[in-house]
Specification:
By secondary structure, the chain is an alpha/beta fold. It has one domain (2-194, 225-260, 298-316): Rossmann fold. 43% of the residues lie in helices and 14% in strands. The strands form three sheets. It has a seven-stranded parallel sheet, sandwiched between helices. A two-stranded parallel ribbon has the order 7-9. Strand 2, helix 3 and strand 3 (58-61) form a beta-alpha-beta unit. Helix 6 runs parallel beside helix 7 (154-173) and helix 12 packs antiparallel against helix 13 (335-346). The protein starts with a helix and ends with a helix.
Length: 347
């Protein structure tokens, strides 16, 4: 894999976010030339700032809703590969500001697709959506790429709309071209350096650090938990396949989720995290305020069969690596070194 990525020009939108920062570190480790395009990291403790990524890649502060600025970045970065991660990525804020959520997730993605029209060479494009693009159901049947799209909340529906937009632009403007486009749907990722509000691991770490009781929206909700490196390496494999593909067989959607049969709810994840930290959990309080799907499980057989991708770390390993990252960081270890150690261990 390293031979393919060495020297490749990679344009990454959303590089200042949690997943974007981890992907930036992986790409730099593999020897890629990384150009980032995103909003500024807001907090001093954001992983992008902690790892001093601005000093090690080409950093552009651009809102993907601004097509003209985005076009300039595409022009001078001359990408071989594009990873589009920029998004409004949270469910609860999507209720508070649904229009901005749709503008960012749909129109921002269309701007990326429009910029691709001016690339005159082979380019692989991975547009990242979410496991939440599927029509909500309480069934324990894992979702397959052929299942109906839906989305109750503004975030989920905007990502489902993004899937439709990508398929339309791919068929209408890039059929048979050197621009190969696929969408990637991953599960609920966890890992060190996520400080976002309304996410479970940051909430657990905050509760532990501040010695307070933990408030959960829905302790019995089931999610496809996975370490952030698992889907990211799936995206890398997908991009490689797209770039090398002569038959257009990879221009479709792919699920990247944990092994099937892992029906893990939020409360189990929380108890595991506390156990790994070495303390007993405080009282868990249910604070449901908005609708969220009670069960989300992915079928990733397509990625297994076509890309030879499988998750590397099981649930306990995932939570161990995640909790251990925060524990070491809060004890004073360097964030970038902790990220690099886990990337090396994963590879």
């Amino acid at each position: 894999m390293k031979n393919f990525w060495h020297g490749k020009n990679v344009l990454l939108t959303g590089h200042t976010g949690f997943k974007g920062s981890w992907l930036s570190e992986v790409l730099l480790t593999l020897g890629a030339n990384v150009t980032g395009c995103a909003l500024e990291a807001k907090l001093e403790q954001d992983l992008f700032n902690l790892c001093k990524l601005q000093e090690r890649l080409t950093h552009n502060v651009v809102d993907v809703r601004n097509k003209k600025k985005l076009q300039k970045v595409f022009h001078y970065s001359n990408p071989d590969v594009v990873f589009h991660l920029a998004a409004q990525p949270l469910v609860l804020p999507s209720y508070e500001d649904p229009v901005t959520t749709w503008e960012t997730n749909v129109m921002g993605s269309l701007n990326v697709l429009e910029c691709l029209k001016f690339i005159n060479k082979r380019c692989a494009v991975v547009m990242v959506t979410t496991d939440k693009v599927y029509k909500a159901s309480n069934e324990y049947s894992p979702k397959m790429e052929s299942d109906h799209l839906g989305g109750h909340d503004p975030y989920s529906s905007s990502k489902a709309a993004m899937e439709l937009a990508v398929a339309s632009w791919r068929n209408s403007f890039f059929s048979g071209s050197n621009i190969k486009i696929a969408t990637a749907r991953s599960g609920n990722v966890v890992g060190g350096g996520d400080w976002s509000n309304d996410r479970i691991i940051p909430s657990v770490i905050s509760a532990i650090n501040n010695k307070v009781e933990l408030k959960l929206r829905n302790p019995k909700a089931i999610r496809p938990w996975q370490h952030v490196l698992d889907p990211l390496f799936g995206y890398l494999k997908l991009a490689h396949a797209l770039y090398s593909d002569q038959h257009f067989s990879y221009q479709t959607s792919f699920n990247f989720g944990p092994d099937q049969g892992l029906f893990i709810d939020v409360e189990t994840l929380v108890n595991t995290a506390y156990e790994i930290w070495g303390i007993k959990p405080q009282k868990i309080v249910n604070t449901v305020t908005r609708h969220e799907a009670s069960c989300l499980v992915l079928n990733s057989a397509k990625a297994h069969n076509m890309l030879n991708w499988k998750p590397k770390w099981n649930f306990n390993e995932t939570i161990f690596h995640t909790v251990n990252w925060y524990k070491q960081f809060l004890q004073g270890d360097d964030a970038a070194s902790l990220v690099q150690e886990q990337i090396d261990a994963y590879i």
